[in-house]
Design brief:
three-stranded antiparallel sheet; six-stranded mixed sheet; Rossmann fold; about 280 residues; 9 helices; 11 strands; DUF58; alpha/beta
């Protein structure tokens, strides 16, 4: 294990176990011991949950509602294609590894099992279901060292494979840069599971300036570009990116999916805490 992976693991573990993020991945309402609220009694509800003191005071029957103490089935799914092998402060793939590690330790902290997959042209099992720290370490190593160059993303295939693979209702974290999302459709997946999307970007990708003569290589499709990036090219690129993100955000809102965007220069822990509260 190289020094960068060790640093990610030590930092993530310290942040998770010293913050409340690990206790806030999700809450389901149902039978349990964690009190949630009082609500007016409805016909057919269990009379054992009636709060007789409050009911007597309000002259109406009220029942106690509890958070379910069910173990969550958490799945961490980084989307590793060629475009994540890029970054000015750090590579997006490294940030994805850090976010996945934070989520893995968070699951362990709250006593839930987690498993992980790597998605791009296919859906590959990364780490099996576990509650152990070594599974987080194994996942981090696999994600960090994964050869993403030359890999293309197939959103349609990913959604279908996740739907068929995960039989039980799960909490799914999809982590990627989400470019070219024309075929992204999470409607069916979000009806069966609780889906959270984490968009990983580099500031340069959204704030590109006139570069003049350049030599670029597409790390997903493999072709090279030699030419001039002028003001007109930049304007077209930014317009296209804004259209992509507008479609992405609208789709996620329609599917009732929570999401956040994290940049390579940011510490992801604060945004993850806000996302999971």
């Amino acid at each position: 294990m190289n020094s960068k992976i060790k640093k990610i693991l030590i930092k993530s573990k310290k942040e998770v176990f010293s913050e409340i993020v690990g206790n806030n991945l999700s809450k389901l309402k149902g039978e349990g011991y964690d009190f949630s609220e009082l609500k007016e009694y409805e016909y057919g509800e269990d009379v054992k949950n009636i709060d007789w003191i409050i009911s007597a005071k309000l002259q109406k029957p009220y029942v106690k509602v509890f958070h379910a103490q069910k173990e969550l089935n958490i799945n961490i799914i980084p989307i590793l294609n060629g475009t994540v092998f890029f970054g000015t402060d750090k590579f997006k793939q490294e940030l994805i590894c850090e976010i996945s590690t934070l989520l893995g330790f968070s699951a362990i902290k709250q006593g839930d099992t987690f498993s992980s997959y790597i998605a791009n042209e296919d859906l590959l099992l990364c780490s099996k279901k576990s509650k152990r720290n070594f599974s987080v370490e194994y996942m981090a190593e696999k994600i960090y060292n994964y050869k993403s160059i030359g890999k293309k993303v197939n959103y349609e295939l990913i959604s279908n494979k996740i739907f068929k693979t995960l039989k039980r209702r799960s909490l799914i974290f999809l982590i990627g840069d989400f470019f070219q999302i024309e075929k992204l459709d999470l409607k069916i997946l979000s009806k069966k599971h609780e889906v959270i999307v984490i968009i990983v970007r580099d500031y340069f990708e959204e704030n590109i300036s006139t570069l003049g003569s350049v030599n670029f290589k597409d790390l997903e499709k493999g072709f090279e570009f030699r030419g001039v990036i002028d003001k007109y090219s930049v304007e077209n690129y930014i317009k296209s990116l804004k259209e992509n993100d507008h479609k992405l955000f609208e789709h996620l809102r329609k599917c009732n999916i929570d999401f956040t965007k994290i940049y390579t220069k940011e510490n992801p822990i604060s945004k993850l805490i806000r996302l999971m509260k």
